[in-house]
Amino acid sequence: MAEATNHIQSRFNSDRFDVQDISNLSLFLYENLLTVIAHCQSDQSIAAANIYSLHEGQDLEKILDHDELINASNTSGRLYLHHQRFTLVPGILFNPAHSALYLNFATEVNPERDEVVYTGIANNSIQILGAADKALLNLFDARLPEMETSHGAAHVLDYFLHQNKDLLNQEIFVHTAPNCMYVAGFKDSELMLFNRFIIHEEQALLRYLFTVLQQLAFDQSHCKISILGNLDWIHSSEENLLKYFKNIRQISPTQNIGYQKGAENLRNTQLLEAFWLQQPAV
């Protein structure tokens, strides 16, 4: 465990956590962060979680070799890959046989290196397609052979689409993570825009938000902007953003997942996965 401990950022265990009680895992891989969540067999509540910072290419393999949740007797889980290589396809037009073709419109797909993964959300009315590096998938598959893979946008957009009741006619939701954000724009409760941006400075954040407002023809002083997550991750603050947007606020995510007693502090990370379990498509 020493190797993995060198990279661990936070660990959260319930008071009576036992690795034998793990039903399945949810894993969220960002560019520089890995979250591993263990679900309880009885009710899918969160029993434990480990969060790792990633600095080098070798970090991930070492972590997978030593993490006690990944190497428990459980062999199933879902991996969410957060990166820029994804696209959305209307469910009515989607044909799995053409997945690579759809994704090629958004990003180059190399059949030798990439596997195309897809996940239906909102009763399969939207398919989220993403590229998954085959070598990366092999690393996870060696430990979790029954693992399923989705692009992280499926988890985020699933959350956003469950919040679109009784919205104003112009609303934007922002989900933050380290050095990146997802943005969803709704007009009269209908999804008009969804995208992901890399953010390394506040000026980039402002530039992208103003571009989104312009693209949607939203009124800067009227549009409601709700931000979920830590604003430090995108190099800003609510105080600074209020200088540019009159109707902007930081909110706590709606929660649809329970906790085993003692693991609740995972919510303090402000990561969406600490609050939201993606609903299976019907």
Automatic annotation (TrEMBL):
<dbReference type="Pfam" id="PF12864">
    <property type="entry name" value="DUF3822"/>
</dbReference>
<dbReference type="InterPro" id="IPR024213">
    <property type="entry name" value="DUF3822"/>
</dbReference>
<protein>
    <recommendedName>
        <fullName>DUF3822 domain-containing protein</fullName>
    </recommendedName>
</protein>
